[in-house]
Design brief:
Number of strands: 2
Strand content: under 5%
CATH architecture of the largest domain: Orthogonal Bundle
Largest sheet: 2 strands, antiparallel
Shape: extended
Distance between the termini: 94 Å
Radius of gyration: 34 Å
Strand order of the largest sheet: 1-2
CATH class of the largest domain: Mainly Alpha
CATH topology of the largest domain: MetI-like fold
Number of domains: 2
Number of helices: 19
Order of helices and strands: HHHHHHHEEHHHHHHHHHHHH
Structural class: mainly alpha
Helix content: over 70%
Length: about 400
């Protein structure tokens, strides 16, 4: 048997590990100090009279790093910080050395001045990898569309087994989507809201853009700032303000009472009565969508009017055209791409809106984004992916058309 004194003389694993960590941190600190010193000597062209002050500063910094190494030798965070600080200093020094090669490296190796810079090669390499950003942005969308064709199995509770595991290709979820009456009803509500709110917002937004661009009046600056508020403020703030306004004007009970009166009427045809009931129920949503879509339409039309040539209108008036004829035959056709672009943008925003619609919608006024949210709360199924894919494709098509018309 070995004596206890012999065991005490053997190196303990824990102490050996602590000693190695301390040595590594000490070397890191020393390397960092040497890099700072070399950088100051080579790139700073330090005069001789400043050398003592620099030496004192370097010694103080080295002692601080040494103290950190001693105090943080048991801390994983401290070791990580020191490691990354050392690596960052090394890369920073190499970058400065590369940028100032004609003053440093060329003095030692004359051929170094003619070599390509590392920074230029790095910039070229990053430019060639810019497609990674597109993958990062659009890969989730592609995955969503792909998994909408996933042949996943459904349990008795309505949940899907292995939603994220590919089980085969199928169109069943799109066929079920076409037969789901709740989704069809929500899509109908969405189209009604988007169409009506787009027409109203486009009309008011175009007139607002013409007034703001052509005329000066008292309070124009304040009105211009107010026009940008729906774009700047968060959706949740606008939703709360709208629902408070609807409560103050008693809009909810009024729409409910009016829809009941229309439903009890026997004069109107059935299809017209059902449409009017739906229209009355989604009236708060239409008002809310018009409130924020006006700003987007006005901004797009004003951008079109900024490059408008007013001499064309003057030429039309010289040919005895009145103001209405000038507007209808000259102004309106020239700004029509901007109007259509703003209308498509408003239509897209109305279809995709969830936060404001979720707050102001009432019974029987569920739109498609709100329906998708309720489906996700139960469980994510490929049917949800199919709905999202359809909405996504429609939104992308409308947005591309809007951008294309604005560039005409």
């Amino acid at each position: 048997m070995r004596s206890p004194s012999a065991d005490a003389m053997l190196p303990q694993p824990g102490r050996l590990a602590d000693s190695s960590i301390f040595v590594i941190e000490l070397l890191e600190s020393a390397a960092l100090g040497v890099l700072v010193a070399v950088w100051g000597l080579l790139l700073g062209d330090m005069p001789a009279e400043q050398m003592p002050r620099f030496a004192m500063g370097f010694a103080a910094g080295y002692l601080v790093l040494l103290a950190l190494s001693i105090l943080w030798q048991q801390s994983q965070i401290g070791r990580t910080l020191l490691t990354w600080l050392s690596l960052g200093s090394i890369f920073f020094f190499l970058l400065l050395l590369d940028l100032n090669r004609e003053y440093v490296l060329a003095r030692v190796v004359p051929r170094a001045a003619g070599l390509p810079r590392i920074t230029e090669k790095t910039r070229e390499w990053l430019a060639n990898l810019s497609w990674l950003a597109y993958i990062f942005l659009y890969a989730p969308i592609v995955i969503l569309i792909v998994f909408s064709f996933n042949a996943a199995t459904v349990t008795e509770g309505g949940r899907v087994l292995s939603t994220s595991v590919w089980k085969g290709f199928t169109f069943n979820w799109y066929s079920e989507l076409a037969q789901n009456t709740r989704i069809i009803d929500a899509a109908y509500n969405t189209l009604v809201v988007a169409t009506i709110s787009t027409v109203i917002a486009t009309t008011i937004g175009t007139m607002t853009a013409l007034g703001m661009e052509r005329y000066n009046f008292f309070g124009k600056l304040a009105f211009d700032a107010t026009l940008y508020l729906p774009i700047i403020i968060p959706d949740i703030v606008m939703a709360l303000s709208l629902i408070l306004f609807f409560v103050l004007i008693n809009l909810g009970p009024w729409t409910l009472s009016l829809s009941e009166q229309v439903a009890a009427s026997t004069i109107l045809p059935e299809f017209l009565a059902s449409f009017l009931i739906r229209l009355i129920r989604v009236t708060p949503i239409i008002i809310a969508h018009v409130a924020f879509n006006i700003s987007f339409v006005a901004i797009v039309v004003r951008a079109r009017l900024a490059d408008f040539d007013r001499t064309l209108e003057e030429a039309a008036q010289d040919l005895y055209a009145n103001e209405w004829q000038t507007f209808r035959r000259v102004t309106l056709p020239l700004i029509m791409p901007g109007i259509i672009g703003g209308a498509l943008l408003a239509f897209t925003l109305s279809i995709d809106d969830f936060v404001i619609t979720f707050f102001v919608s009432g019974p029987g006024a569920t739109t498609l984004p709100v329906r998708v949210y309720s489906m996700i709360r139960i469980g994510v199924t490929p049917e949800v992916n199919a709905v999202s894919a359809v909405m996504l494709i429609v939104s992308i098509v409308l947005l591309v058309l809007s951008l294309a018309l604005q560039r005409r």
